[in-house]
Amino acid sequence: METRSLAARLGACWPGLTLALLTVLFGQAIGIAFGAAEDAMKARLREDAAAVTATLYKGDPALAKPVVDKAWVYVQRAHLHAGAMGTTALVLIVLLAALDAPRGPTRLVAWALGAGGLAYSLYWLWAGFLAPGLGSTGAAKARLAWLALPSSGAYVVATAAALALLIATSRRQARAGG
After folding, report:
1. Distance (Å, whole) CA 94 – CA 109
2. Whole-angstrom Cα distance, residue 127 to residue 73?
3. Which pLDDT tens digit goes with each residue over 42-61?
4. Are 67 and 48 in contact (CB under 8 A)?
5. pTM > 0.85: yes or no
6. How many CA atoms lie within 13 A of 34 on its CB side?
7. Residue 101: which region, alpha, beta or left (left: phi > 0; alpha: psi -120 to 50)?
8. Domain residue ranges in the chain
9. pLDDT by residue (tens digit) across 70-116?
10. For 33-39, what is the mean pLDDT?
11. Contact yes or no for 99/93 (Cβ under 8 A)
12. What are the contacts of 121-124 at 24+ separation with CB within 8 A?
């Protein structure tokens, strides 16, 4: 059996690696935005709620406050999810490549990890900014279920597949004496 170089194995995973790195950068960009424009971001959430106070919040600004507060938590979740999911995706992809797991499944897992992590992080940011104008965080999550469910599902399935590939590859290499 011919062994490909690590560079070739990583190159086969470039779409997933690229998406994973974009996810990490997305999380960092949100962190920079927190430092540079946190007050403006929070003001936008309040303004979006104020624009629909008469219709969605029964004319009572106090009813909007918990939605705006929870929306800000969602924006923070986007930052945290992007950092954690992007980094985890990078580690798993590099580990699969380093162990020379089968190319096809590794490429698929890499793509699902990268795309799933990025899309799920985007989901939290988008839900955070939608919620005040929709009148609830539940409405924002429901509106974006089409993004949240497949992206989180792809990420979890890909993580489980990475574990299975790591176990199978380790066993194959142990039997081969390498």
Report:
1. 11
2. 10
3. 999 999 999 999 999 999 99
4. no
5. yes
6. 15
7. beta
8. 21-176
9. 999 999 999 999 999 999 999 999 999 999 999 999 999 999 999 99
10. 98
11. no
12. 121/23, 121/26, 121/27, 121/78, 121/81, 121/82, 121/85, 121/86, 122/26, 122/78, 122/147, 123/78, 123/147, 123/148, 123/151, 123/152, 124/74, 124/75, 124/77, 124/78, 124/81
**Amino acid identity at 131:** A
| CA–CA gap between residue 64 and residue 116 (Å, rounded) | 31
b/e map of 149-166 (b: 16 or more CB within 10 Å)?
Answer: eebbebbeebbebbeebe
- Angle at CA of residue 116, ends 160 and 135, nearest 5°: 125
Q: How many CB atoms lie within 10 A of CB 146?
A: 10
Helices 61-98 and 103-134: crossing angle in degrees, nearest 10, is 170
The CA distance from 33 to 36, in Å, is 5
